[in-house]
Amino acid sequence: MIPQTVPAKDRIQFSHANGFPAGSYRQLFAALADRFDIDHIDTIGHDPRYPVTEGWPHLVTELIHDIERHSAYPVIGVGHSLGGFLTYLTAIQRPDLFRVIILLDSPIMGRLKSAAVGLSKRLGMMEHITPAGVCKHRRAQWPSKADAVRYFQGKPLFAKVDPQCLADYVEHGTIEVGQGVRLRFDPRIEYQIYCSLPHRYPETRGRLRVPAAFIGGAHSNVVDRSDIANMRRHHGMECRQIQGGHLFPLEYPAQTANMIHELVLALG
């Protein structure tokens, strides 16, 4: 724990999406930097002390320990996709660690979707309802960072990602090996995270003791009206929409930062 002095800025604990190391969000962090200090785990799930298992209990513990190491005061929890789910689950378990939480395209599932995910796990079909199957065949190495940038520029997922965010993703999401570079985020761990996606969210209804908000991409393929209704009705979340798809924090980092700031002020 750091000495208990009053911080000069509010502190954000940011948690990244699956497969996107925290350095990928440098533009978002820069847009937040004048108002917030930011802490993060660089690659969630890669510390062997916190293995990826069903429902992610050790990843929650990893986040708890990271917050406890870096802040003596409740933080503003912000998470994108995987990171938002983790932030929510951690706030359920340790509300004392958070002032508010803001989920970025991490929809808390209602009963029907939760049951569907649970059934998919039992039938071994998670590869068909999540990007897990893609991870098995994901290219992970290139001759150079420039080659990696060109490769991702041709992928639909990255079509609307801000060019500087894509450059940051390659710069901070790859490491040099031999005659080239490879992904920093191990696709095997990415696969495990998708296949062990928590699905017992209905059991957490009424248990959230932290002011919370959700920001969804207007063109996201992971959020629908039932998710918004569930989060408002059963979890008391303020829900807003922003331009972009599932990767809107990397498509529109400045706009995302502004909405985060607005929500922090609104939630107190």
TrEMBL record:
Domain AB hydrolase-1: 16-257
InterPro entries noted in UniProt: AB_hydrolase_1 (IPR000073), AB_hydrolase_fold (IPR029058)
Gene3D superfamilies per the UniProt record, alphabetical: alpha/beta hydrolase
Pfam families: Abhydrolase_6 (PF12697)
Coiled coil (UniProt feature): none
Tree of life domain: Bacteria
UniProt-recorded name of the protein: Pimeloyl-ACP methyl ester carboxylesterase
Taxonomic path: Bacteria, Pseudomonadati, Pseudomonadota, Betaproteobacteria, Chitinivorax
